[in-house]
Amino acid sequence: MNKPIIYLIATLFLNACTSPGVINATPLVASPATSANITIHRAIDQGALFDNLVFSIDGVDTYRFDDSDNFKFVLPEGNYIFAYKHGLFAKTCTTAVEIQAGINYIFNLEPDCTIELE
């Protein structure tokens, strides 16, 4: 193979690994009456090109943020561990949350490794 083709393949692979959006589905909602609306807001500026911000629920990577992105979903009531990892070698920031039905929640992913409820 010649070098331009190798570079093209490598570029496509890296872009596929870092494209924003849903990675895995959120927990299933059995009934709207027992669920809540959740918004996760990225309050962290995007740095370098591959400076990923990945949000997870109960240890499952759920969403990869783009710069100034929000992730909205519905979640059944219950207790969860919300987490995010910012950057390739960053530590994982976590918090335990209790979600109650019928409430609209907004959580901010802050640069100081906190997940703050508005």
Q: Which strand order do you get reading across the main beta sheet?
A: 1-4-3-6-7
| Low-confidence sequence ranges | 10-16
Instruction: Quickly count the domains.
Output: 1
Rg, Å, rounded? 16 Å
Can you tell me the CATH topology?
A: Immunoglobulin-like
CATH class: Mainly Beta
Tertiary shape:
globular
Number of helical segments with 4 or more residues: 1
Q: pLDDT average, as an integer?
A: 84
Corresponding CATH superfamily: Carboxypeptidase-like, regulatory domain
Tell me what the structure shows.
With 118 residues, this protein is mainly beta. The protein has a single domain (20-117), classed as Immunoglobulin-like (Sandwich). Helix content is 13%, strand content 45%. The chain is built from 1 helix and 9 strands, in the order αβββββββββ. It has one helix spanning 3-17; strands at residues 21-22, 35-42, 53-57, 60-64, 70-76, 78-86, 92-99, 104-109, 115-117. A 5-stranded antiparallel sheet has the order 1-4-3-6-7, with no helix packed on it. It has a 4-stranded mixed sheet with strand order 5-2-8-9, with no helix packed on it. β3 (53-57) and β4 form a beta hairpin. The longest helix has 15 residues, at 3-17. The termini are far apart. 16% of the residues are buried. Mean pLDDT is 84; it is low at 10-16.
Features:
118 residues; mainly beta; Immunoglobulin-like; five-stranded antiparallel beta sheet; four-stranded mixed beta sheet; 1 helix; 9 strands; 13% helix; globular
